[in-house]
Amino acid sequence: MAGVSVETQMLAAEPKETPIFGPVTGLSWKLLAGSLLTGAVAAVLFYSWGYQIVNDIGVAGINRPVFWGFYIVTFVFWIGISHAGTLISAILRVTQAEWRRPVTRSAEAITVFALSIGGLFPLIHLGRPWLFYFMVPIPNHRGLWPNFRSPLVWDMMAITTYLTGSVLYLLLPMIPDFAILRDREAAANPGSFRARLYRIVSLGWRGTPQQWASLEMAIRIMAVIVIPVAVSVHTIVSWDFAMTLQPMWHSAIFGPYFVVGAIYSGIAILMVAMYLLRRTLHLEEYLSDKVFNNLGLLFVAFALIWSYFTFAEHLTVWYGNEHSEMTVFWERVAGSHARAFWTMIIVNTLIPIAVLSWRWGRKPLVTAIVGLGVMLGMWLERYLIVIGTLRFPRLEFTLGQYIPSPVEIGILVGSFGMFGFLYFTFVQIAPIVSIWEVREGEHLAARGGGHGEAHVGASAPAALAGSLGARTLGEEA
Amino acid sequence: MTRWGMNIDTDRCTGCGACVVACHAENNIQTVGEAETLIGRAMHWIRIERYYEGTFPDIHVRFQPVLCQQCGAAPCEPVCPVYATYRTPEGLNAMVYSRCIGTRYCANNCPYTVRFFNWHAGDFPAPLDRQLNPDVSPRPVGVMEKCTFCIQRIQDAQGLAQLEDRPVADGEIRPACAQSCPARAVSFGDLDDPDSQVSVFARNPRAMHLLEDLSTEPAVTYLIGGE
User: What is the ipTM metric for this complex?
Assistant: First the structure.
């Protein structure tokens, strides 16, 4: 097409975009090695799972009364992580926060991958995973339905809805970027694998005003829809616990408490991911100190909200002084789980508030380290909730112990490998910073419309007419 | 209508454990072995809890056999995503092994901790396989199981009564634990029949239910308080 010369002009005009285009145009040995290495760790997950299916669920360390162990802890952990992206990105989009532009893509990708991994865990945890479809309402000759009263059925529906929504929400804003890559590849190496791939995934995008209007509308609708869906997902995950009679599970605060914890852990992993992306892909221009500062403020806000919920939850239990609840409470605060509990308080409350409250504490490296601590702390929180309650049933004759088996540890470690693998691979296929959204932001800023007041949706096609819009429109003509 | 109920007189119970053994034999419950028991996977549909009152040497031991309470408002039932555990019209809390996918949610929501999971399938090496009860299906790996009130015996008695065109007599059905109890601490019958032995016992001033404040409406009544 005739777009070639315009494209090369654009390349020359925008040298700062080189780091974005780097990993998605050529082969980066560093990223490929990352994919292979994390892929090898991910293989541990599937090996362990296969081993468990062949040798029975009994190879895990779960027992009676600790019927749920690492699998459910890690399930809640990953589903929590998944609130990083879609929810944060949707809130920032709806509130038209201009600094969101370089962040949204990397955040939304976290959601999709964390959700896919988290969704595996309920299956891994089943005694007979090959019958999981009994939970799906498939019409059948026996007239058997799933039990719609069960929070596990709600869970499955919420997670599949959220996964569908998140995938759409990730894919929609990628279409114009894929089109940009398609045009570049068609010019640079026609017939290459990337050229063919981007031709398919850009879904015939031409950048016509109608296409832009439809896309903007679709993104805006998805951003609004995905917020309540995300909130519902972790609320329902919390109801897996709160709907039972178990001490320190049966709590009305669990819904919002889990949602806050989920967003908190989501921001934590986003901090770590953004730091790594900035370092390895040299995206300092995009993931700037200002972005880290803003996200750091959001981070410390959630540290405070999470700490408030934790305090409220434990205070009401302690004040109520009910026997079976107090058994769990004291084991957690001063008994066999005290080390995990106080570690959680240190890394989730004390350190984040002490560090992130200051401007120097919201620098990239510092926030990433705090983020790692919060990820550990949030995993421990779920560990305390699941194991801390199940070990101490109401009838004290059946007190229990829990020691995770190598299979469970392998699956936990493998899940992190799988996340890394998916992320490394994604970075090599899709631009991790949304090209068109950043360009759009620059145009809006250049037009002097100010940051907050710009009407993003309405002005997008016009704003873009200067750069990629002109090119693609030119192609049409 | 019928609502099956059980009565356990803890003042009679000597803690001998005959009910536990009889239950194993009747219901083909697997014996898990030492290693599994050590990590908390012992499987006994009925267990005898020991409680000590007073301080040595003036000490008093109480025994409390605990089995599935066949709750009228069972916490285990609504949480099962696949209806593998449900309430029969006769008030039993039934398990459908072939429907169970092993989420273990029911066991987590059971305040009595009387549900047991098949972490591995039961192993009955010869000649143990010859003493399997043909009326009870062995359970595969990955499913939950628990006390059924010896539903196979209930159905036997009901079938016989139907053939002879008469109602099931009180005391005609005896689950394995009731049959084997040398102290006759366990009785079984219809709670909806005001004259049955279990109904009479349930009105006894010594009667109590386990964790009654949770409103699970257990069908097992304990008699406790005497010497």
Answer: 0.92
